[in-house]
Design brief:
Layout (H helix, E strand, L loop, with lengths): L1 H14 L8 H8 L3 H5 L3 H20 L11 H11 L3 H9 L9 H29 L5
């Protein structure tokens, strides 16, 4: 009898990550940096990721980096895909008209790279939140 209770308790624990909408941390983490980890109550990791991603995005804009809106060649397409990784930061940047000037200096080009890397880091963080939610990764 005690063995059956342990088996049921282990099965209940294993079913936990698969219940509910498991893609919510992925989607929320992509839209708002760190939000996927906040949803999973990983406060420290979420705060660190949010600060790093928003900070890199802001530094990129401060360096007069460009937010890519159209793809003229393959490098612009890849840069735009990286920019889209910032989620709502990309949308807000486009609506506010940030990052629309063409790079005139080397620092502006580096600023554009900061924005792209912020987007790529955000995608990695969102996938990490999804893996934590599904149980593929231990906390």
């Amino acid at each position: 009898m005690a063995t059956g209770q342990k088996t049921g308790a282990v099965q209940g624990r294993n079913q936990g990550p698969d219940q509910g909408f498991v893609y919510l941390p992925l989607i929320l983490g992509w839209l708002v940096p760190g939000a996927g980890h906040f949803l999973l109550k990983k406060w420290g990791r979420g705060a660190l990721l949010a600060a790093a991603i928003v900070g890199m995005f802001a530094i990129g804009l401060a360096m007069q980096g460009q937010i890519h809106t159209a793809a003229k060649d393959i490098l612009d397409l890849l840069s735009m895909a990286g920019d889209l990784g910032t989620g709502l930061l990309y949308v807000v940047g486009r609506v506010m008209g940030w990052g629309t000037t063409l790079p005139q200096e080397t620092t502006a080009d580096w600023g554009s790279r900061f924005i792209v890397v912020a987007g790529l880091l955000n995608v990695i963080a969102a996938v990490d939140a999804h893996n934590l939610r599904t149980g593929r990764k231990a906390s």
